[in-house]
Amino acid sequence: MNFIGKYVARNELLKKILSSSDLLKEVAGRYVLGKDLEDISVAVKDWNGQGFGVILYPIEAGAPEYLDSLKFLSEKEIKGSISLRTPLKNMDSVVEEAIKRRVRLELDMRNPETIDQTLQQYSEIKRKHADSVICLQANLYRTAADIEELSSVSPIVRLVKGAFDGENAYQTKEEIDLNFILLAKKLMDKGIKTYLATHDDKIIKEFIKYAKDMEIQKEHFGFQMLHGVRADLQEGLQKEGHELWKYLAYGEDWVPYCINRILERKENIRFALETILRK
Predict the structure, then answer these.
(1) Is residue 267 part of a domain?
(2) What are phi and psi of 224, to 5 degrees?
């Protein structure tokens, strides 16, 4: 979460003011479909019917909300998974329920100080729940070594560009993009099922070309993209036979999440400005 997003998340008065803004609500509609499972139910079922997988992210949720999400996916028979933040109180109950309901878990990287803890938790969960996914960040120096360390549990990886900064991370877009491609190829070469979580055309095209050149079948990789971003790209990849999952956030505490989505990409800022100028 960027500095502005963190500030908004900690300031309850500011969140209350922003959440009452009709303008922000309109912009947020591109990234956050609703406040609860009932709000998103129709869209999720429609996407599933079109062949998309769905990753549910209940914003700033605790174990009860995750359990509700697992029940929702299971009872609706939706091809979906849960984006799980760590550390989480009562995580064992969530893992046990996911195993029982045969719903995939995807462990997020939420804090640079808990990376080792998250990787250890993933290793333990993966041994019990084989479909579980771990998020790895391409901007970190350590990620190549983490891939080697995780190889013993046959991980499934969600590769993102990453949001952590500091002395242990690449700083420029060029460096991060290069490492993203190198890591994606490394994962493929090791036979690790990999989801590329990026909307970057250049990276996607280079990766698909590499997969073709190396005769890597489509079932060994896929793509995960945010709801509300590059719908044209998502539909195009799916029509080409690629596995495509939509990452969908929902929840009461939607303001900081929305602010982060707007600020992380130039086209998102442009969309927000265009919405304002229409008024």
Answers:
(1) no
(2) -130, 130
Distance, in Å, from the CA atom of 130 to the CA atom of 177, rounded to the nearest integer, reads: 29
For residue 16, being part of any structural domain is answered with no
What is the pTM assigned to this prediction?
Answer: 0.86
Number of independent structural domains in the chain: 1
Tokens standing for 135? 């998020």
C-beta neighbour count of 168 within 10 angstroms: 12
Q: Which two tokens stand for residue 150?
A: 């995780």
Q: 106 phi and psi, to 5 degrees?
A: -125, 110
The mean pLDDT value for 72-94 works out to 93
Predicted confidence (pLDDT) per residue in 99-123, tens digit: 999 999 999 988 888 999 999 999 9
The CATH number of the domain where 136 resides is what?
Answer: 3.20.20.220
Tokens describing residue 172: 């420029």
**Full domain range(s) for residue 56:** 33-250
Q: Is the peptide bond before 87 cis (omega within 30 degrees of 0)?
A: yes
The residue among 263, 262, 276, 257 whose CA lies nearest residue 60 is 257
The pLDDT of residue 90 is 93
Examine residue 125 and state whether it is found in any structural domain, yes or no: yes
Q: Which residue has the higher pLDDT, 277 or 120?
A: 120
Main-chain dihedrals φ then ψ at residue 159, nearest 5 degrees: -95, 120
